[in-house]
From TrEMBL:
Keyword terms: Signal
Taxon lineage: Bacteria, Bacillati, Saganbacteria
Protein known as: DUF5723 domain-containing protein
Signal peptide residue numbers: 1-22
Amino acid sequence: MKLGRILFPVCFIFCLSTALGAAEVAFPYGRFSLKLPPLENPYPGFGGYFTTISLGQKTALWNPASLAKLKLSEFSWDTFIGAGHSSGTKTSRVDEPSGSIDWSGDPASTARINYGIYFREEAAIPANAPTEAVDINSRVDSQTSGSGLNFSAAQRVNDWLVVGFSTRNPIDADADIGGIFPATGKIFADLHGFRSDDLLVKSDGVLQYTFHSGGVITTMETTSPVWIGFLSQEVSVPVQNLIELRNNLKIDAPFVGTIAASHQKFHAGLNYIPISASGSINNDVRAVVPESATDQYLYVPNFDPNDPNAGGNWMVDPDLYGTSAGYSKKQITLPSGELVANAKYRGFYQGNTSRFDLGMMYDVNEWITVGLMLENLTGSKVTLQGSGLSAYYSYRQVNTAEAETLFQPGSSSNWSPISNNWFTSYEAGATKLMLEEEKTISLPKRLRYGVAFKRPFLIALDWEQNHSPITLKLSDNPQDVVISDLNFLHLGIESQLFSMPVIIRSGLTWLFKPSVSGLTADQQKGVNDAFSMLGGLPVKFDLGTTFNMWDYKVDGNCGISALSLINAMQFDSTSLNLGKTVFAGLAVARDPWTIAYQAEFDPLSTAAAYGVKTKDAGERKFEMSDVRLVQTIGLTYRF
């Protein structure tokens, strides 16, 4: 194995890989922010997205035709009153890598390179210190807050026409990570058994050299081991890794405009929803040799390799080959304070579209209603146009031209291992790093139809067909995973509890087995097993109770849901309620007034709170104190 293929390439490239992959070790600071519109739950405890339930503008997204049943006017206002927040320091223990490489090419040789990558500043590493487990402290700050307040209003214009309007604040997510991560590469060279061209160091430390002069080949060797400072040498290459990752995603559907009309028992309505989306990607990782880095030195035998007489004098004089006096210093110049590697992944995307919903309802009689909802009637798509796109990594190449004769007598007294020649690549392996100039995202297109019976108690039943497949890219799958044929059954029940002034409600959403392609055999078996017993899985459950107390109605409700995850994968901004996985609420109503409070589980801040906890005795337990909530209060006036 050639020396030039091992010595500095090992040290330098390993440091660069640490620089470009330092995110996998630790970050000194991370800030994660999620801004959400006020939370919505039009019919607490009953479930959602029923085509036959009418609660004014609140249920316009369920079915715009429901607005046609508004008596006269409706006004509502919702805002955040509390948000989830977590901050703390997470300590990660990271093992500094080290190893050993045989560089002689002779299996019987003991010549080796021992290397270590230290996640510390060079000045903090004691002489001859081994690598060790290093504690790295990372600061994490997570915040979920409101992006504004929601307001809605609806008004009956005449006997057959109603118009409504509601504002909807954006979903705004930020993820920022930054800091400086040190990495110092050290190489410890043991030359016992080393061979390079005419130079041989035997395993006992005796140096042998073959001279070529005038056609005569002469081999000489020392009578005892050479100077230990030549046999064991050390080189350090410190690198500071500057990490700046700033990413933002904003999805905005600023308002919903609704118009609904009635003719006898038939009602129809239309929603108009403008939608815009933008994304900012600004990721930069730089590797810099710090200004404090000093040039390194190697020792080489100080004789002329073309002069056998001078070499012979050196070979027989222990005051030369056995001490530092017989060796010259080879200076290894490091580019102190200079950039040696860089990776960028940045760009900006923006696009907009409009969504139209068409809904219809028909009252068969006083206690039976049927409904139909065509969500995203025109199959709208958001086309995100990219600008300022850049994705590449580059580094200064390692100069191996002189490395082959690095320890040869009479070789150059100066070597710059890090050249000024830059190598730039736009792909990692076979994967191109380029950002797409244009990205088209199809909004979910759904068909819902159902029926509601009001006697002997209220029961609503809806069937939903989701015509938009979900495409997932999984690292362990050779092809994209596509989930299609998503069908849901929505069931809601409301009934008075015997003759008591108590009303109970319950809702259930059931997902039937979808079609999934692109899975491995084991993954497909897991999907089949999950749906094998009942042919489906519950994805949302609601429970609510209303107490009639004199002139007041007091309502309590709770529920769990996985629908927000499905909505997120389908880029559904109007139905996307990221906090609505576990939720509860309380409402008080009197005459036309209703005031409602909602508290919902905040997965982002809760995960951050749990992540920064200190482990006791090697164990970390989830506790109620880790839970973070987002809270909303709303006021509705309907008459």
